[in-house]
Amino acid sequence: MSDRKRMSTRRAIRGLKWFIALSIVGLLFNFFLTPFTEGIRYLAQLNPLFLIIALALNVCDWILGSMRILVLSARLFPQIEFKTCLKSNMGNLFLGAVTPAQTGGGAAQIYVLYKNGMPFAEATMVSIVCFLGSIFFLISCALYLLFFGHVPAMNPSLLLLSRATLLVFSAIILLFIVAVVKPQTFENVTKRFLSRVPILKKLLESSKLQVFFDSVQEYQDIMRIYVSKGRLALLATFILSSVTYLNKFFIAYIVLKGMGLDVPFIQTIFIQMILFLIFYFSPTPGASGVAELSSAQLMGTIIPKSSQAVFTTLWRTFTLYIGVAVGGVIMLKYLLAQDSLLEK
Q: Rounded to whole angstroms, how far apart are CA atoms 264 and 301?
């Protein structure tokens, strides 16, 4: 098996440890700022019905993400099964959570699809288009907030981070369009850029760089299949991406209702949009620490300070922690099986 199709169990476990440690630090910091007795009161009055709804929405999130992979994969690899897409999605969720800026999520998705028979190039293209579906929706959120949303007060660092994320999203989409429409132009511009940056200039001598450019050409051919015969699949991907994120946003509102808090629905959704923009490319694994702290600050504009720690714990549990646990079991089975084969 080539290096690009091999994943590291040791690295995944190390990332998981960092994710857990930073998440605990973030949550403990929130509880440190919350009067203990008042926080316990919110735990005591939790409505089980709303927690069940939140769990159902969590499972719905997994299904929606898997359907997105299925819709795109079926166009390139008709024999794909939903259970494979579900495993791929959960692997994406897990490895995305235990790597900085979610960089391992796409690799895990590709790996599971590849291990279940899908050609590597097709699996990679599916992952890229899924990623772009998320980017398009988040850019839509950013533009909506900019022109129509009532954004709560943010400290300058968070405001700068959210705007920087918007610029990164836009740059990614622009690069993808250039790479697909004009792969030779993309190659020439990339080489010219690398040649003018001393620290990156040595990459021009790497054989892997040419492999990457050859792959771009291959991906262009695959993208033509979507454009000519799979436009409905592309539209469905954007719709499923949008519904997936709206479902995540709604979980926050359900958690608040389960805590007995009467909060404005629209304002809750606005804040969720901002939060996901802030920590999509967070340098910590799964935005651990960053998500817990930024959530407490922004949600603190509409909920009592005494409820922030409990809300953040429940919100992260239903939007990520449970998924990481389930995805971890699935992904680690793949990785351990790979290690066993390598040892032989």
A: 11
CB within 8 Å of 194: residues ≥ 6 apart: 200, 201, 203, 204
Any bridge partners for residue 325, and if so which? Answer: none
- Look at residues 97, 273, 311 and name the one whose alpha carbon lies nearest to residue 169: 273
CB atoms within 10 A of CB 16: 20
Distance (Å, whole) CA 107 – CA 110:
5
Distance CA 126, CA 73 (A): 6
pLDDT (mean) for 52-78? 96
| 3-class secondary-structure state, position 149 | coil
Show the tokens assigned to 11. 């690295």
Long-range contacts of 213-217, Cβ-Cβ distance < 8 Å, separation of 24 or more = 213/183, 213/186, 213/187, 215/121, 215/124, 216/179, 216/183, 216/186, 216/187, 217/183
Give per-residue pLDDT as tens, 132-183: 899 889 888 877 776 765 555 555 555 666 667 667 777 877 877 787 778 7
Amino acid at 256: L
Record the tokens describing residue 156, joined without a space: 């300058």
Using the CB atoms, write b or e for 98-129: b if 16+ within 10 Å: bbebbebbbbbbbbbbbbbebebbbbbbbbbb
Please tell me the distance from the alpha carbon of residue 285 to that of residue 13, in angstroms, as a whole number: 12
